[in-house]
Amino acid sequence: MVPSGEINESKMWAPLGKPERTGRVVAVSREIPPSADSVRNDGRASYIEALRYIAALRYITVLGMVCALMGCPGAWGLDAGLDVSQYAHTAWKVRDGFVRGAIFAIAQTPDGYLWLGTESGLYRFDGVRAVPWQPPNGEQLPHNFISVLLGSHDGTLWIGTDAGLASWRDGQFSKYPEFTGATVVALIEDHEGTVWIGADGISGGNLCTARSGHIQCYGSGSFGSAIGALYEDHRGNLWVSTHKAIWRWKPGSPERYAFPPLLSGALDLTEDDDGILVSTNRGLAHLISGKIKSYALPNIVGQFQYSRLFRSSDGGLWVGSWQGLFHLHQRRTDVFSAVDGLSGDFVTSIFEDREGNVWVGTPDGLDRFRDVAVATISRKEGLSRSAAWSVYATRDGSVWIGTPDGLNRWQDGYVMIYCSGNSLIQNGQRNEQEMSGSAATEIANSRITGSPQSLGQDQRGRLWASTADGVFYFEKHRFIRVPGVPGGVTESVVSDAAGNVWISNITEGLFCVTSELAVKQTLWAQLGHKYATTLAPERGGLWSGFDDGGIAYLKEGQPPISYSASDGLGHGRVNHLRFGSDGTLWAATEGGLSRLRDGHVRTLTSKDGLPCDAVHWSMEDDDHSVWLSMPCGLVSVERSELDA
After folding, report:
1. Is 414 inside a domain boundary?
2. Domain tally for the chain?
3. Which regions of 345-500 does DSSP assign to beta strands (E)?
4. How many other C-beta atoms lie within 10 A of the C-beta of residue 427?
5. Which of 321, 341, 370 lies at the terminal end of a domain, its last residue?
6. Is residue 453 a contact partner of residue 467, using CB atoms and an 8 Å limit?
């Protein structure tokens, strides 16, 4: 742990890794991009216009391709099990003065900087600021509309524009007269280090190569008016998309695969385990066994206009569209759009840097998605409500989550929702758009009523849930009310080795329900406390932690054994009790973390090194490290350090 204020940013952060800083910025005006209607037509002229406008995703190197399919050592990558909404997300907005114009191209050079190609020039981005870049010595870029960028393995930054091609390496700026006036729409580097260029308006052909500064062009008369995209698959095949067909250009003799009547205008290419994926003017397509067929993203219903395809190093497929960002992973698709925080709905570029961050460009800004230490499960992942009141993990691997709408059972990325009798879902008020792409099923007749509060599991493996209407257990796919146990506010539900279930009701007292469903009640006045906030059974007895402070061990036929602040226990409310792997009792209190061993109490507070005093709960992981939930954050302490 590093104390706040002691981090030397200059030593810890390289470009793109510096902490984000906020400050006053001045918004600048920008040109209004063409309307969506201007690129939706199926005609050849509109296709060329669309290519010029959304030609930026062409940064696909062999290294990136191999990483995407096989994984690369040294690249951190994202967690493939997470949805887009679960990644850490940061957006830089055009309206806040970040850059001027839509971001059509993204590349990274060996010094770590990102380069952003926009409709109004080239920018260099260090993770904090984007600075306009111009060639030295009075040189000029061929055009200010940057359509595509490529950072090749030799450190060259290739710059494709609306009217020519340039490069920048080791302080040397070069322009290529062969592309004067031509729109460069695609750049890739193959596994042999050859740079391939797709352009419109080259007399010798629209497909060219650059080797040691020498330009050679191919395909005169083959590709029609324009090339849409270039891609090299994991077998080394070079693919070229055009308005009417897809070509496998090399190795060997070129092969042409024509679009069927309802598909045309390939805008981007990538691959999956079965073949080549294509985004077209009419949706997604799949080239398998020599035939092109329509392709639909799993869990997605409706018509969308797709613009970008990108395979990240974790194997996930990122699909940009006019309606937001789609993310296909583990056979399901989730959606992230402007309503979720994306800088804009129209995705113009997608790129993965060397650290595994995924960057997305839109006409309204730049977005970064990076991995997180702690993932969040919310309504976007299928929960009935993002607010979670209680969480319990059962022995079958399920995680039960109590929300105002009912109980959610999360397992293997799938959510089963057991709606309560007063659920808003049953009343038809759920926003189905928020569920787009999620994997969830609602069970409306689960027989549980009220909003779930405390959860527990008995010795038979049944889940118990308390609500304001009563206490229920889950058996044979439905909930059964426990007779004789009132509703109200319940703080804790636990089970002992004998099969008894103990329930702490803050107004009615402590209830013990036997395996035969016999009920015994103990009033709080009999225990001399306000009420128990947490329970922990042990050796035929029960430990209770109380709202007004203190803990007590209760056993039938024996007087209570109590500990309080005067015995060294943390003062104030006892939030949680648990037994460690060695049988030690740990109490999370408002006044610190207390340990009871052999009748002796020790308490750790901020004076002993904790970041603050209050502890909400503690738990021990498989490595015997202890995790503490505190008002000041989530804290992990090695067991040896905790014992010391």
Report:
1. no
2. 2
3. 349-352, 358-362, 365-370, 390-393, 399-403, 406-411, 414-419, 440-443, 455-457, 463-467, 470-475, 478-481, 490-495
4. 9
5. 370
6. yes
Residue 199 belongs to some domain of the structure: yes
> Is cis: bond before 251, omega within 30 of 0?
yes
CB 359 within 8 Å of CB 113: no
pLDDT of residue 79: 87
Strands laid side by side in the 245-250 sheet: 227-232, 238-242, 245-250, 255-258
Q: Which domain holds residue 207?
A: 46-370
Tokens of 350: 């997608």
Give average pLDDT by consecutive 10-residue segment, the chain, 644 residues: 30 34 29 34 43 40 32 58 91 94 95 94 94 93 96 95 94 93 93 92 80 84 79 94 89 91 81 90 88 88 87 92 92 91 95 95 96 86 87 94 90 85 47 47 85 93 94 93 94 94 96 95 93 93 96 90 96 96 94 95 94 95 93 91 83
Q: Confirm whether 419 is domain-assigned.
A: no
The CATH number linked to 558 is: 2.130.10.10
What pLDDT does residue 273 have?
Answer: 86
Identify whether the C-beta of residue 128 lies closer than 8 Å to the C-beta of residue 160: no
> Residue for token digits 């698959």?
233
**Do 229 and 361 fall into the same domain?**
yes
Last residue of a domain, one of 304, 336, 370: 370
pTM as predicted: 0.73
